[in-house]
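Issue: copy button drops trailing tokens. Both records pasted manually instead:
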Amino acid sequence: MHAWLCENPVGVEALTWKELPTPEPKAGEVLIEIKAASLNFPDLLIVQNKYQMKPPLPFVPGSEYAGVVRAVGEGVQHLKVGQNVACLSGTGGFGTHTLAPAALCMPLPDGFGHVDAAAFIMIYATSYHALIDRAALKAGETVLILGAAGGVGTAAIQIAKAAGARVIAAASTDEKCALCRELGADETINYSVHTPQGTLRDEIKRLTGGNGPDVIYDPVGGDFAEPAFRSIAWRGRYLVVGFASGPIPNLPLNLPLLKGASLVGVFWGNFAKNEPKANAQMMQTLAGMYLQGQIKPVIDQTLPMSELSKAYAIMGSRAVKGKLVLVN
């Protein structure tokens, strides 16, 4: 097998493509021949030693991937050789093969391709857990989605529309706003025009008739959080999904008090760990939604696995719409 090896986490430039012994799965593991792997923001942080999970060195980055089971370890009952699966294991995806815990593998139904599957678990599990489980989104409610043209943002648009919500999508360019409308967004906000320090709050107010959004989905953080929260509706739910802009915001706690609003943390990984049965049921629901055409990952582009450094550069430029996928 071959893989991109991180022996010193000082950045993307330190990754090297190396031939390694193909491993044998231990108890509870499967060997997967990787067909496609997607690039996520944590994949950048982890090779810079900036991610909360710090795997022992050396390691192969690549948190999310899809492929074919080539061997199964002792005790694995629900997967078999030749089966198509997707997996989000945190590392191992940027190569030709990897070992994965069988419990983390999602069996793929017929008609679920590897490229879509490699870009599926993280964004749809996060967005469904956020909007449906944590926010209890109802038909007819209004959702404001920040960072709406990114991976989790595009997934959130589709899930919110499937739930019957009205969607306001906020993104940084007219091109990204156009993509959001193609995905079903009812209104868009270009926040390079309506900036957090400028008219963002006024525009949210205008688009909601002064009532504010019932749910705010925020994977961005930074300067966007306070003006967005100040716009929220009475009994609104503010979903803290992540901090893609960098800084973690400091919100005055009088704001939830005055609005009767909830500040809701969204950590899908811990949900999956603490409530595995509920998570498995959710993933089944999402697979069904995919097969019914209700949701489908937005693939910005696919690149050969050999062009990982180019993929990282594209992601770092913040020009990506949806997901980047590497293929073998």
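Record 2 (pasted manually too):
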Amino acid sequence: MLHVKVQEAGGINVINFAPFLDGSRKQEVADAIVQSFKDTGFVYLTSHGLSQTKVEGMFAWSRRFFSQPMDVKMLAPHPASGLHHRGYSAPGVEKIVREVFDPNEIKKRRAQAPDMKESFECGREDDPLMPNIWLPEGMLPGFKEACLDFYWACHKVLEINFLRALALGLGVPEDHFVQVHTRADNQLRLLHYPSVPVEQLKNEEISRVIAHSDYGSITFLFQDSVGGLEVEDPNKPGQFTSATPVNGTVIVNAGDFLQRWTNDTLRSSVHQVSLPPNLTSSDGMTPPRYSIPYFCAPNFDTVVDMIPTTYSAERPKKYEPISCGRYIMERLAANYTRT
């Protein structure tokens, strides 16, 4: 019998999700996922149910979008507020600052090492809090439809099934998480890291994405073959290991809200995007990198308390109940800045 754990990549478990989807070894897969989240906060899934053709098709659309002239991309501008994550952001505009509130310090950090990435973000079409911002009709026909199709495929195929496995692994009913993730208050982000001078990254004159954690419940990440994602060793703060791209997999990581929800049983690990490992460059430039994260959160009006199996008299609750919307908006306000 094949093990559900296929291999490790950068110290992160690669789990075969097929035995959960077909029902043959659901508990074993669920337990392996929860253990990986306890150990590193990350897991790779193979045989996850979303076709590789659909994934590659979304990467193709991403490349088409980012290859448009800047004046075209700016026809779908991300609002100035860091609380409305929709539309296009140009390189150097957005900066993660992690709990820095002083405007002068924020400005200083952005000037020292701007984030050299560009992004496009969308959500569900009927979101009153963060309405989508698309290119004008007739510009890049089919792009909007492709984004929405991929968005809902991630929700129905990946998010719902993974949440069922997570619940099973934590010893609660399978629908425990699913019943409060019904509205898909999520975010699809297309990311492009342009080719930049290697030395500027090494000297920290520019950055790609500095060390940070995600804020919601879980994140699914599709990455190309270039690499550059690094995950902090939970037992050695400040030491990062490369999360090597594994063909045909999706990386899943726990977010801050899930760590709180599970009374710190699961880890929301810090991660960053840096130089690809073992990079050799004849022209002194990095290769461009593309990735597609899908950030998942409970319905924003959901107020959650600790998972029953994660606290006891010997291990009391660490947190008070809080609504998902309030928590995530507070985290965004504290960590994202824009010019």
